[in-house]
Amino acid sequence: MSVAALILREAAHRKLSSALMLGAIVCAVALPVGFLTAGEAAQRETGRLMRDLGYNLRIIPAATDMSAFWRDGYSGETMPEEVTRRFAERGDLSYNHLLALLQRRVLAGDDEILLTGLANEVAPVGKAQASMTFAVAPGTAHAGFEAARALGLAPGDEMDLLGRSLEVAACLPETGTLDDARVYVNLSDAQEMLALPGRVNEVQALECGCDDPAVDTLALLRRELEEIVPEGRVLRMERIAQARERQRRVAAAHFALVLPWVIIACGVWIACLTALNVRQRQSEIGILRALGRDSGHIASLFVGKAVALGLIGALAGFGLGTALAVALGPSAFPITGGAIATEWRLLAQALVAAPLFAAIAGAGPTVAAVAMDPAACLAEREGA
Known about the structure:
Blueprint: H1 3-13, H2 15-51, E1 57-61, H3 66-72, E2 79-80, H4 83-88, E3 95-108, E4 111-118, E5 140-143, H5 145-151, E6 158-161, E7 164-171, E8 182-186, H6 187-193, E9 199-200, E10 202-207, H7 217-228, E11 232-236, H8 238-280, H9 282-290, H10 295-332, H11 344-361, H12 363-370, H13 374-383
Parallel strand pairs: 4-8, 5-7
Antiparallel strand pairs: 1-10, 1-11, 2-9, 3-4, 3-10, 5-8, 6-7
Helix pairs in contact: 1-10, 2-8, 2-10, 2-11, 8-11, 8-12, 9-13, 10-11, 10-12
């Protein structure tokens, strides 16, 4: 009888142990497949949540009086608006989501507000993404919470600001920050009202992630800035930047922490079941030895069973892991979970890794089976 036939007959005879071993392989495949299938959504979700913390870089004119800057919340100096174009023409930068602003404190009636001219967000070459902020159409204004309350504004109202009539497109919710005192207008409108054509006094940006803790990211940002905007200086909001970096590393480390323990547990499970299988088949091993079967034939019975179950487990585990990721992903990652899809490359990897994993996990008991003394095996059978 061929090795394949013997494997099939033995698996059918010992259904429970075969099913338990198959279950271990399915679990060892399903978990990484599920994690990796949902992993892209997890990374996108983490990135989106970290992005929503806001811009963490402020690029201001180098000549800024920093005491006045921290007192007023903006620079009293200006630089050319076209600095954002310089960034946009480069793709090898650590900056993204570039937003040019022109800010001044002005009077609106008897109340002082922070007039903020807002450009459309731009991105370096090859890094275009959805904008982090709202756009303000020319001739309109978005009033911060306190500014709207002080001026009695509501959406659809007309307001007069520095001799210009603007339609209030939106009144923004309370943030508990300086933004509540702002009135946002289109950058071109602000430049015209303040008689500063083509000028801005700040460019806000988002720092692109660097996963190497040995890299001084702030020094890197400043070197890049000196090449592109020598008339500017960069300030990094450290709490936001550090929160982003820590969260990225925690998200990346989570999978690396959990997966090895599951794989080890499944490997021990397979090894124990293989050892039990060897124990159950002692008499069979003795008979095969007595019939002249060599060590290779004995080993092939156990390795072949592990490989066969590994292939079946790879298919079942891939299907289970993918189904769980697709079904549960949208609830775990409400923003990006809908984009989870089958990762067919993982099937090919599973079909190679699972049989190899099962064979390695059962290697110890297999070696023990090969080393058994046939006389002792048969003697134990006679004693039974």
